[in-house]
Amino acid sequence: MSGKGSRHSTGDEYVLDCKRPSWRGLGARAAADRRMSRILIVDDDPHIVEMLTEVLGEHGYEVDSATQSLRAFDRAKEFRPDLILMDIMMPYLDGLDQVELLRLDSDLAQVAVVVMTAYPRAAYRWTEKRHGRIVASLEKPFQIDELIATIERVLGKEAA
After folding, report:
1. Residues of the domain holding 135
2. Each residue of 123-141: pLDDT tens digit?
3. With CB atoms counted within 10 Å of each terminal CB, which end of the chain scores lower, N or C?
């Protein structure tokens, strides 16, 4: 894997390089005592998808992904996730368009969505309007601990 625009950060934030995604400060959590929750990642950046897949797998989640926005709905129908991590800015159909499609499907209308964006004002606007099931937002680059805490909070709320 090679490419431009490698992302590097400090602390517990994700670190992407052009060869292999890596992260710091994870501290794998025991997940054997809970039902394996299913998370669908929708992001057009394959480096981010790969990193999130590895991190979430290490934390005991079953993960699937779509790197093309036009395939996200079909992946969601097949995979039946408990939560969707959705990038906002994508070609063809953006995150808001995807959430609107999910709302129209009776099987997917109640799936919680956490939006991810490098544009925090956009995330704020979308979560304020409460489109569909957008329940939280993460600003890229985000810290892995923040990601896991957000997922656990959302899934905990959904189970209650």
Report:
1. 38-159
2. 555 555 555 578 888 988 9
3. C
